[in-house]
Amino acid sequence: MTSISYLTNTLLPLHIRRFRPSLSTLSCSLASDVDPTPNSYFPKRGQTLELVCESLAFKGKGLCKVTQTGFVVLCDRALPGEHFIGRVTRKKGNYAEVTKVKTITPPRDIVDAPCVYAPYCGGCKTQNLSYEAQLRAKEEQVRDLLIHVGKFSLQHLQLHAVLKPIVPCRIQFHYRNKMEFSFGPQRWLPKESLQDRIVDDDTNENYALGLHAPGFFDKILNVDNCLLQSHPANKVLAAVQECWRDPQLGFSPYNVHSHKGFLKHLMLRTGRDVTTDQPEVMVNFVTSSYKPELLKFLVDKVSVFPEVVSVINNVNTSVGNTSVGEEEYTLYGKSSITETLRGLTFQISANSFFQTNTYQAEVLYKLIEDCAGVKGDDSEIVLDLFCGTGTIGLTLARSVRHVYGYEVVPQAITDARLNAKINGIQNATFVQGDLNKIDENFGKNFPKPDIVISDPNRPGMHIKLIKFLLNLRAPRIVYVSCNPATCARDLDYLCHGVVLCRKKRI
């Protein structure tokens, strides 16, 4: 029987068998003095409700339910235990979205958010919730998704101790090794700050460099310091903010509506020098065209920091808002930075995937090895699906016979092969290919694996790949996920089979 283990990027390990679904319930209060009509149970747009947030839904929205009907109400920035007044802004099928009008009773486990942007920024919506409460909320989210989407019963999850305690990170801030900031022609301000606005909309001072305002693709919240990224990266961000609006420099931020402008994104990546263990920072300017003479001032500005060892220019001429360019140029220093994980050295290029939390990546890879049950006698074959730059497969290669890695991004495969060479690993083969488009020939170029590692992006695995794994019948599968919703769906297929007709599963 195939054994399947699952890991999320919040490091919540579990072991899966065949389970059956069960139901859990949530409730909220609906005050009669707000709107006593029966229609309140199925609220309409503009209606005002008094609610109690019971838990956090995926992506951090507060979840309530109308007691009499179970109608789901979601509220951005509502926290568990918070008693509040909300106004319905949107109704979609079996749920409604509300905007918080006023807090009546503050939430449980509330703390002071250390970041000044926390009330408005979309990056840290629950920063004013204690870290311990955040961990509990994530455990609940994974558990509920396994029950309702994955069709596993709560009784069996508890009986077989499938859900293990979440593994907290030893640091809560400055842990991300990659941040992407966007340039924009007009900075976004919260409503309460609009009356303080004294800047002329037509001046460069209104330009923005920061993060997208929640719910908007075209509005940028200007950010001078981000508590998620490293201190050296924040020094670079501050240096760019200090000068890029100067009209004499001739910079123009990209406008997503008119498709005009030069500067699109500022991507900052942080690694470590393998010899000195000191930080290494890569600065990546994403622009709409290649104008190195125009960027020279910014390159000189940021390269004075000793931590900056690489300045890259990705040129993206498309009208889209992606940070990946069609062309890439090295304007200063190296074309990549390095990082060490579990005793191995990895080269990180501008657009290659690397676990964004280096501290937890160390823990995650150890959990993957434990869940895989590697014998360590150099006898096993590992199939590493969605291998990226090969980090997971290469950490296992030292204890197995051979690793076969597959990834769609050509640059990632190039990096994976380079990483294998750097670390003297010769028993790893990396192949570029789209795992969403496999055919009957997939699997003929490698022996049957003893261990399968799957680490897909947010959409999860394509049904073709799931059917391949069901027919493969590998003894062990480890599923690593950054999206518990699509992972729960895939686990349902892997553990309960794929429905081919009304009653038949494979």
From TrEMBL:
<dbReference type="InterPro" id="IPR012340">
    <property type="entry name" value="NA-bd_OB-fold"/>
</dbReference>
<dbReference type="GO" id="GO:0001510">
    <property type="term" value="P:RNA methylation"/>
</dbReference>
<dbReference type="GO" id="GO:0008173">
    <property type="term" value="F:RNA methyltransferase activity"/>
</dbReference>
<protein>
    <recommendedName>
        <fullName>TRAM domain-containing protein</fullName>
    </recommendedName>
</protein>
<feature type="binding site">
    <location>
        <position position="407"/>
    </location>
    <ligand>
        <name>S-adenosyl-L-methionine</name>
    </ligand>
</feature>
<dbReference type="InterPro" id="IPR010280">
    <property type="entry name" value="U5_MeTrfase_fam"/>
</dbReference>
<feature type="domain" description="TRAM">
    <location>
        <begin position="42"/>
        <end position="102"/>
    </location>
</feature>
<keyword id="KW-0808">Transferase</keyword>
<feature type="binding site">
    <location>
        <position position="386"/>
    </location>
    <ligand>
        <name>S-adenosyl-L-methionine</name>
    </ligand>
</feature>
<feature type="binding site">
    <location>
        <position position="355"/>
    </location>
    <ligand>
        <name>S-adenosyl-L-methionine</name>
    </ligand>
</feature>
<dbReference type="InterPro" id="IPR029063">
    <property type="entry name" value="SAM-dependent_MTases_sf"/>
</dbReference>
<feature type="active site" description="Nucleophile">
    <location>
        <position position="482"/>
    </location>
</feature>
<feature type="binding site">
    <location>
        <position position="455"/>
    </location>
    <ligand>
        <name>S-adenosyl-L-methionine</name>
    </ligand>
</feature>
<dbReference type="InterPro" id="IPR002792">
    <property type="entry name" value="TRAM_dom"/>
</dbReference>
<keyword id="KW-0489">Methyltransferase</keyword>
<dbReference type="GO" id="GO:0006396">
    <property type="term" value="P:RNA processing"/>
</dbReference>
<dbReference type="Pfam" id="PF05958">
    <property type="entry name" value="tRNA_U5-meth_tr"/>
</dbReference>
<keyword id="KW-0949">S-adenosyl-L-methionine</keyword>
<dbReference type="GO" id="GO:0008757">
    <property type="term" value="F:S-adenosylmethionine-dependent methyltransferase activity"/>
</dbReference>
<comment type="similarity">
    <text>Belongs to the class I-like SAM-binding methyltransferase superfamily. RNA M5U methyltransferase family.</text>
</comment>
